[in-house]
Amino acid sequence: MNRPPASKTIARRGLLLVLSSPSGAGKTTLSRRLLERDRDVVMSVSVTTRPPRRGEVEGKDYFFISRRRFDAMVEAGELLEWADVFGNGYGTPLAPVEKWLAAGRDVLFDIDWQGTQQIHARMGDDLVRVFILPPSAEELRQRLIRRAQDSATVVAKRMAEASNEISHWAEYDYVIINDDLDTSDKAIQSILSAERLKRHRRIGLDTLVRDLRAKL
User: How much of the chain, in percent, has pLDDT values that exceed 70?
Assistant: First the structure.
């Protein structure tokens, strides 16, 4: 029995997947699901100048570095994005990100709109931006309360911060209203599947097309 030849696998360049949302919208849970399910996705690990907290692991949660080293990385352009938060520096090392992209791996970022803007300015073609919205302000408030991690004062502060975060929703490529985790999870899967098939990420596709045309 004659079988058709197996289809040729086309290598691809990885992509940068940013998930942003106000606190309590479900971003962390969705990120965890994606990382557990898809081995082609790796989590970006940031550098920070703050000291480690109890239970944090070097190289898994953060890379803990001195302020002097951080400033030198900023000056040398070694950080893809960076910010100062309450006197501590946070940033994404560029070198490992470029390594993962070249290897066809996708890099997941859990960052805010400011970091997303910086990455877009440097690597726009590689970037896929997804904003996670809560279904309503009241649902967001209830989720923050149910977490039982913050005082009423902190919950109120996070709600005020959420308004500013949400004001940047239109800067993102995709927007998911997270009223159901399973549905939102499937939406992220669909986005990732489609983005991986985009022409500019498929290395060697032009060569395949030329070979096909030459033999027709």
Answer: 94
Q: Is residue 198 part of a domain?
A: yes
* Cβ atoms of 124 and 200 closer than 8 Å: no
Let me know if residue 84 belongs to a domain.
Answer: no
Please give the residue range of the domain that contains residue 169: 16-44+105-214
Euclidean distance between CA atoms 214 and 208, whole angstroms: 10
Q: Count structural domains, the chain.
A: 1
Residue 206 lies in a domain: yes
Q: Is residue 96 scored above 60 in pLDDT?
A: yes
Cα–Cα distance for residue pair 111/115, rounded to 1 Å:
6
Residue 141, domain member (yes or no):
yes
